[in-house]
Amino acid sequence: MGQIVWTAQTSPIGEVPVVVAEYVLNELGIFVKREKRVPKSALLNKLTGFRVGYKAIRGTDYRAAPVDRNAILWKKVVSVTENASGCLCVRGNRNDEIELHVEEVMRNDILRFIQSMRDMHHPPVTAADYDAAAWICWRDDDDWGDPFAPLTDMIAQELNTDRFIEPEVLEETVLPDLDM
Tell me: domain 4-171, CATH 2.30.29.30, correct? Predict the structure, then answer.
């Protein structure tokens, strides 16, 4: 089925720093990585030529700093709803939520992809799941390797990583009984 990859500004227009999310929807699940961006011409950058924790993004007028990342496997998705601002909210595991900011031109393709993946993984796996727990560890991991690597590269790296799963992390993947 392939994958869908896109980026979107998630902060309100005009707000600084700008928050940008990179999304990947693939056969495994939904993934997001967010970063803050500040203009290279911002006051601190003008005075010092750099901003602590921010790295210049080649080909742009911005410096960026990682914020967070998250993943929800399709087999753990419990709901997909639209919020008041038109974003799609995907909920999964016990406490995870990913907000998808989608341009109108991509909306139907993304909704079809999500529906297809949910149909393939219906009903969700309600029991504890080591694969889903590994992605919770990935979400919470302080060592990102290269935080500016494309999200697809981060996903590929995690697929080749063995993790020790703590019982409380495994417990986060247990879903309450769902009325489907």
Answer: yes
This prediction's pTM: 0.91
Answer yes or no: are the C-beta atoms of 37 and 30 closer than 8 Å. Answer: no
Ordered by start, the domain boundaries in the chain are: 4-171
Compute the Cα dihedral for 127, 128, 134, 140 and give only its sign.
positive
Residues of the chain with pLDDT under 70: 1, 42-52, 178-180
Closest to 161 measured CA to CA, from 153, 149, 172, 169: 153
Q: Measured between alpha carbons, how far is 132 from 126 in angstroms, rounded to an integer?
A: 11
**What is the rounded CA–CA span in Å between residue 82 and residue 156?**
29
